[in-house]
Design brief:
Length: 164
C-alpha cells in the first residue's frame, strides 16, 4: 500500500484528462444502471482494500463537520459543542467547519479513528463511490482519485465496465 500511495498523485495526474473526458460524457448521458454498477464496484474494491493500511484520507484531507456531527462528537468527548469547535475546528472559505489541521487529530498511530462510532458523516461516506446519482459527484471523485487508492481503482474499473 505504501508504494501505491507514493505513486498515486502521479498516477491520478496521468489519468486526469482521460477521466475528465469520461466523466463529462457520463454526466451527459448517465446509464440507467449506473448506481447499481457503482455499488458493485465499490463493494468489490473494499473487499480488497484495507483502509487500516492506508488512512490517506484522514492524513491528507479532512471532512466537513455538520452541526449534527459537531453535537454528536462533542457529546461523545464530553464537551459543549462550542468548546469542541474552539478546540478542534476552524471555518473555511466556504463557511464550513473543518479540522484545524491534517492529519486529523482523531487519527491514532495505528490508523484507527478515535471517534469511529461518532465520526462525521463525510468520513462515513468517503470516498462516496457508492453514492446514489454518482454522476453528480464526478468532480469530487476526480479529486479523490489522487487521494484514495480505492477511488482510483474504482474509476479505472468503471471505465472498463461502463463504456462511454
Ligand atoms: S477510504 Fe480510501 S484513502 Fe481512505 S483509508 Fe480507505 S482506501 Fe485509504
Ligand atoms: S474523524 Fe476519524 S475517520 Fe474522520 S478524518 Fe478523522 S480519523 Fe479519519
Amino acid at each position: 500500500m505504501d508504494e501505491f500511495l507514493k505513486q498515486l498523485p502521479q498516477l491520478a495526474k496521468d489519468k486526469h484528462n482521460e477521466n475528465k473526458k469520461y466523466f463529462a460524457k457520463l454526466k451527459k448521458k448517465p446509464p440507467k444502471n449506473l448506481d447499481y454498477v457503482m455499488q458493485e464496484l465499490h463493494e468489490e474494491e473494499f473487499e480488497r482494500t484495507d483502509c487500516l493500511t492506508c488512512a490517506n484520507c484522514c492524513k491528507t484531507t479532512g471532512p466537513l463537520f455538520t452541526n449534527a456531527d459537531i453535537e454528536r462528537i462533542a457529546k461523545f468527548l464530553k464537551l459543549k459543542p462550542q468548546q469542541f469547535i474552539e478546540q478542534y475546528l476552524q471555518v473555511d472559505e466556504d463557511n464550513d467547519h473543518v479540522l484545524q489541521e491534517v492529519p486529523c487529530t482523531f487519527l491514532a498511530p495505528d490508523n484507527y479513528c478515535l471517534i469511529y462510532e461518532v465520526r462525521p458523516k463525510a468520513c462515513r461516506g468517503y470516498p462516496h463511490t457508492d453514492r446514489k446519482k454518482f454522476h453528480q459527484i464526478t468532480n469530487l471523485t476526480l479529486k479523490n482519485t489522487a487521494i484514495c487508492p480505492a477511488a482510483f481503482n474504482i474509476v479505472e474499473e468503471m471505465k472498463k465496465r461502463i463504456k462511454m
